[in-house]
């Protein structure tokens, strides 16, 4: 095995050692875009290097060599060591395994022991397929020239016959054009009566009566096969007719299309500190990737709320923090409005994911949020409580939702107190997905 083979082998080992997917979700840098870059645990490649401390062989020195018992001074810096204590300013090199959402969804299924397929409605969509349908009218650019040529060629071949053979037939003693035509029809010779009449009239006198009978003519004259005649003479022209013209147009293909819209809701009130926001991002981002990989069309809506709610772009969603109070129902009211106006239940699979620290204004969960969750038709409602401390006196929203709606097949409640809980929370949500 050569050095190049060794290098390729080490690279393959490096790819196999990319970060475990669950570990990446829990602790990795998820980024802010749609690209999924899973870090690869670098494998150092073997290389030759000279020992910088090698100063010669045994018994050699440069003078001034310490005698036994002399104090030893501080080690001298070696070339390439850099200035001690000075931090580097250049970025290090990192290797990543780039993964598309489809692959991510497949591997997450395997990682978490899931076996999920897109559920819910299939919207029938029409689109143009291959140019397989034909019509009798259309633009010249759509004319099916190949079919026109084939139809003309078939007609040409069907009309072809050995003219010289028929003239030999007309040379039989006492034969008439009528008798010759009947003979041609019974022997599948595609000659017209008009052609026989013309050929008989123009037959030279010295050819008339050459054969005493048709039997004698057949014994001495053999019709030339069509294929041989074409090879010898070629095809002079092909008779095209207007009824042979056909124009191509694309067939309309009806395909079932799985469409999904995901409403992501996040509490941005003053109690949502950075550690809580990070847990929301660490949970919601893989869910977005997963559903993008599972569905043909996936759209995402991001709603931030404190005491009121507003729609934001994804880039803002995970970073916003306000100083206001909390009223979770405001986000569900806005979600219901967006879904009704833009994503009808008859055409879209719908997911409503909300996250926060479970702190909500008095009675809002019981009186408003739970009725709205019951009213909004969706494949799945999920609430993720992010409490790094594990609990808080006023953090009751998740428990109330679970107590009232936890028995439903399309409601999931998950608790995340640290990165180690993220994978379990994602499993809890995805394994609760309703078949509706």
From TrEMBL:
Residues 53-95, 115-139 are annotated as: Disordered. Residues 81-95 have a biased composition (Acidic residues). Pfam families: DUF444. It comes from the Archaea. InterPro entries: UPF0229. Residues 56-66 have a biased composition (Gly residues). Transmembrane segments: none annotated. This is YeaH/YhbH family protein. It comes from Halalkalicoccus tibetensis.
């Amino acid at each position: 095995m050569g050095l190049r083979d060794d290098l390729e082998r080490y690279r393959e080992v490096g790819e196999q050692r990319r970060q475990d997917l669950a570990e990446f979700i829990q602790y990795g840098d998820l980024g802010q875009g749609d690209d999924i870059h899973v870090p690869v645990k670098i494998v150092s490649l073997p290389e030759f290097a000279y020992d910088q401390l090698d100063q010669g062989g045994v018994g050699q020195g440069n003078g001034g060599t310490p005698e036994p018992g002399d104090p030893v001074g501080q080690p001298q810096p070696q070339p390439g060591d850099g200035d001690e204590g000075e931090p580097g300013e250049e970025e290090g090199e990192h290797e990543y395994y780039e993964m598309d959402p489809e692959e991510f969804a497949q591997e997450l299924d395997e990682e978490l022991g899931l076996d999920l397929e897109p559920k819910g409605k299939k919207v029938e969509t029409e689109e143009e397929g291959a140019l397989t349908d034909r019509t009798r009218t259309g633009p010249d650019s759509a004319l099916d020239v190949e079919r026109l040529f084939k139809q003309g060629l078939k007609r040409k071949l069907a009309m072809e016959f050995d003219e010289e053979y028929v003239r030999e037939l007309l040379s039989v003693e006492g034969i008439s054009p009528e008798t010759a035509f009947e003979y041609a029809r019974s022997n599948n010779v595609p000659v017209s009566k008009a052609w026989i009449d013309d050929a008989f009239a123009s037959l030279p006198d010295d050819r008339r009566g050459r054969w005493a009978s048709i039997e004698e003519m057949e014994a001495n004259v053999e019709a030339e096969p069509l294929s041989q005649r074409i090879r010898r003479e070629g095809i002079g022209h092909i008779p095209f007719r207007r009824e042979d013209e056909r124009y191509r147009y694309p067939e309309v293909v009806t395909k079932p299309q799985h469409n999904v819209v995901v409403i992501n809701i996040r509490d941005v009130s003053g109690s949502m500190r950075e550690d809580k926001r990070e847990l929301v991002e660490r949970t919601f981002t893989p869910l977005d990737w997963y559903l993008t990989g599972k569905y043909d069309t996936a759209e995402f809506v991001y709603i931030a709320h404190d005491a009121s709610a507003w729609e934001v772009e994804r880039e803002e969603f995970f970073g916003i923090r306000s100083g206001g109070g909390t009223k979770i129902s405001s986000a569900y009211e806005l979600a219901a409005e967006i879904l009704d106006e833009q994503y009808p239940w008859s055409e879209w699979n719908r997911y409503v994911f909300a996250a926060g620290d479970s702190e909500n204004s008095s009675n809002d969960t019981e009186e408003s949020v739970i009725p709205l969750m019951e009213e909004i038709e969706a494949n799945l409602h999920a609430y993720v409580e992010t409490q790094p401390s594990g609990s808080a006196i006023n953090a009751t929203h998740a428990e109330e939702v679970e107590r009232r709606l936890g028995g439903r097949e399309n409601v999931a409640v998950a608790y995340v107190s640290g990165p180690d809980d993220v994978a379990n929370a994602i499993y809890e949500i995805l394994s609760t997905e309703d078949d509706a």
